[in-house]
Give the backbone structure.
Amino acid sequence: MTSAAYKGLDRLDAVSIANRGLNYGDGVFETMRVHRGELPLWPRHLARLLEGAARLGIAMPDVDFIEARIADMVSSVEAGVLKLLLTRGEGGRGYAPPSEAVPTWMLSLQPLPAMQAELDVHPCETRLATQPALAGIKHCNRLEQVLGRAEAARAGCDEGLMRDMAGNPVCATSANLLVLRAGRWRTPPVEACGVAGVLRGWLLVQGLVEVAPVTSGELEDANAVALCNAVRGILPVRALGAREWSPDPATDELQARLAMAYPMFQDAGSKP
């Protein structure tokens, strides 16, 4: 893994123990796919990063400087995963954010993980709490997802389905949910909980998916189910608990439309 940390525009040798991201999850992050020395989805990631920072009241470092440091790190990388973590910076004991904190931000580059042709998903008991102030953004408190992914691992599954407090499906632990019913792909709303994925956003803009609530019964009766995120692309769900689905041409078509726009997803479902 290659990594670098900065306090504002200054390079750091180490992140302080007083960092509020470490102490309180006071920050936001983006996880991005690297393809041939570039981040093809960077504009969408940047937009969400800016929204998250604004919502939390975190000062945003100079974007040109960030982009230059990203280019330094990924310019010679054929394929990988880059994480950008932005925290409010350092602060004293207590929740109250300091009035003039200098943000700390970090970059870390890791290999692209092996992709799977289809996924087995575990229905998690851990629920997503309702909090509109944090919904949609990728803030640093991911304990619900940590618990959900641990459930999935214990069940021997690839992913975990997360539901809201009413029991309605929202997303997977690290991907958005796509549900095919009556020839139309749906994705649940994320205004109360969940993350507004950048790939989900692209699918919505293209008119390939629509936002609509999905009940547990509708999920069970779906013609096909898939997950999507900016690293893995679109991957079909083979099973959710005891419910299984056969391959559906509609999923292949959705994958093909994505690959036309972003060739890095051309081999979705195969090991890179």
